[in-house]
Amino acid sequence: MDSDAAEKSSKTSNEVKEESNEVVEEKEQETAKVQKEEESSDSGAVIINDVPSDKVNIRLLRINGNKSDILVNSKDTIETVKKHILESWPKGWTDEVPTAIENIKLLHYGKYLDDNTTVEDNKIPEGQTTIVHIIIKFTKKEDEKEKDETKEASSCCCIIS
């Protein structure tokens, strides 16, 4: 009888192993599906899945949910990161397009990142993806300039003699 009980328990452990393998496979397939969806973004955003150990992957997250990744060095200043963001602005993000690095504000763990600090100074780790919120903020001068340009374009003049 002991051999029957041992046989039943070994079947049970084998069944458990098979079930856990199935769960792992399902999770891997789900992860691959999500990664594939992220990679096939129509907005021109770049999503990086494999981060080199000597680089920092910053996932820019906008208030509307748009996201894009950039690879930087940990020794890069935040000003350099902002320049990189400005140069590689996703084509699909047309609602707010910064015109200068001063328009870009980066927020990490509730703190605005200072232009003179490095990525490393802000405790953003290498070899990982770190989410940083990006906020586009125009100065009053730029807002007034845009209003003046709109005013000039829409105004007309009529001279009656």
Structural write-up:
- This protein is an alpha+beta fold and 161 residues long.
- The chain has a domain at 56-145: Phosphatidylinositol 3-kinase Catalytic Subunit, Chain A, domain 1 (Ubiquitin-like (UB roll), Roll), CATH 3.10.20.90.
- Helix content is 39%, strand content 17%.
- The protein is built from three helices and five strands; from the N terminus they run αββαβββα.
- The protein has a five-stranded mixed sheet, covered by helices on one side.
- Strand 1 and strand 2 form a beta hairpin.
- The protein is elongated.
- The termini are far apart.
- Residues 1-48 are annotated as: Disordered.
- Residues 56-134 form the Ubiquitin-like domain.
- InterPro entries: Ubiquitin-like_dom, Ubiquitin-like_domsf, UBL3-like, UBL3-like_ubiquitin_dom.
- Residues 1-38 have a biased composition (Basic and acidic residues).
Offer a few descriptive terms:
161 residues, Ubiquitin-like domain-containing protein, alpha+beta, UBL3-like, five-stranded mixed β-sheet, Ubiquitin-like (UB roll)
End-to-end gap:
118 Å
Based on secondary structure, the structural category is alpha+beta
> How would you spell out the order of helices and strands?
HEEHEEEH
Share in β-strands: 15-25%
The main pleated sheet reads as:
5 strands, mixed
Spatial arrangement of strands, main beta sheet: 2-1-5-3-4
CATH architecture of the domain at 56-145: Roll
Question: Considering DSSP H and I runs of 4 or more, what fraction of the residues is helical?
Answer: 25-40%
What integer is the average pLDDT? 78
Number of DSSP strand runs: 5
**Rg, alpha carbons:** 26 Å
- Ranges with pLDDT <50 over ≥5 residues? 32-41
CATH superfamily of the domain at 56-145: Phosphatidylinositol 3-kinase Catalytic Subunit, Chain A, domain 1
Top-tier CATH class of the domain at 56-145: Alpha Beta
User: Number of DSSP helices?
Assistant: 3
Which fold name corresponds to the CATH topology of the domain at 56-145?
Ubiquitin-like (UB roll)
Q: Per the principal axes of the C-alpha atoms, what is the gross shape?
A: elongated
Region (Disordered): 1-48
Biased composition (Basic and acidic residues): 1-38
Protein name: Ubiquitin-like domain-containing protein
Domain Ubiquitin-like: 56-134
